Amino acid sequence: MLFVFVFALDRASGAFPFFARAHEQGRRTATTVIMIRAESPMNRNGRNDILRDGEAEGTFLLLHGFAGAPESWTTTLPGIGTGAAVRAPALPGHHNGPPAPMSGLPFAHPVDEMSERIGPAPAGGFRLVGYSMGARVALALLLRRPGAFRSALLIGVHPGIGSDGERRERERWEERWATLLEEEGIEAFVNAWERLPLFATQERLPEETRKAQRLVRLRQHPDSLAAAMRALGLSRMPDFRPGLAGVAAPILFVAGDEDPRFVRLGKEAAAIAPRGRFLAVPGCGHNTPLERPDETARLIRSLY
Question: Which helix (H) or strand (E) holds 256?
């Protein structure tokens, strides 16, 4: 049985639907159509991480980046084009996700919480996809539960910091962002975050695309996002290079060809993983799901 709900959402409320088209009519609104099958796991278990129902075997598990959300994958989803289910849980400290742990706990703590939320692997294992912070969490899950994943696609992933000096510098950088969130709020943070050189290539994107991403960021809670930065930041993550050498699953490391730092890191990680490969996506920077959704979907489809 299929239920269809159609409703309008006020942009001022901070809500951002999975599928929406904005228009001007006095106030900015969006008409949304959400289709949920009665037999969907979302209905049976109250789980809110199902982007698409389908066959359990080979379920795609998509992990978004920092200040993102499950709907960050919306533009990529139509191009995946298989009957497999798609799950996209929110990372800790993000909108509709679980609280981020208190600062001072090891990186493994939120990763263990994510593992528990994901639950048992389907028959044949998950096809794991992560972007940026989500890719680092995905890498940690690969090392923690190697038998749960049949393959992985890691986009813009950092395998870990190797030197104490670099780690301390990164920790100071992350703390400045967390403090900005707590003291000046989410809008001030988003205004500054969008100006990072890492995201400069996104200026070429259509205004509608950039506005949609901005809305996802603006609906985050500043204190929760600050906690996520402190719990899941790169400075908290161990150097996973030694562990990569023992991962049996095939891993495709991806970076935009205009993101030279992550091209270098992706090639380095691919050389360590026994079944690792690297691919540079042409014509984009750090966020390939946003900048090249069709190509990202093709790469996701290539997972087996």
Answer: strand 251-256
Cα angle at 292 between 290 and 295, to 5 degrees?
A: 130
The C-alpha atoms of residue 219 and residue 6 are separated, in whole angstroms, by: 22
Give the rounded distance of the alpha carbon of 264 from its chain centre.
21
Residue pLDDT, tens place only, 119-132: 999 988 999 999 99
Q: So what's the pLDDT on residue 116?
A: 93
Q: pTM score, two decimals?
A: 0.84
Rounded to an integer, what distance in angstroms lies between the CA atom of residue 240 and that of residue 227?
A: 22
Q: By the 8 A CB rule, do 150 and 127 touch?
A: yes
Return the amino acid letter for 190: V
Contact 238, 159 (CB under 8 A): no
Q: Return the structure tokens found at 258.
A: 């205009």
Mean pLDDT of 262-290: 98
Strand 27-37 relative to strand 2-10: parallel, antiparallel, unpaired? Answer: antiparallel
Residue range 85-124, pLDDT digits in tens: 999 999 999 987 778 776 678 999 999 999 999 999 998 8
CA 212 to CA 18: how far, in whole Å? Answer: 11
Q: What is d(CA 50, CA 61) in angstroms, rounded to the nearest whole number?
A: 9
**Burial (Cβ within 10 Å: 0-12, 13-18, ≥19) of residue 219:** middle
Name residue 208's amino acid: E
Contacts 24+ apart (CB under 8 A), 9-14: 11/215, 14/215, 14/218, 14/219
Query: Could you give the CA distance from residue 65 to residue 134 in angstroms, rounded to a whole number?
Result: 5
Give percent above pLDDT 70 in the chain. Answer: 83
DSSP 116: H
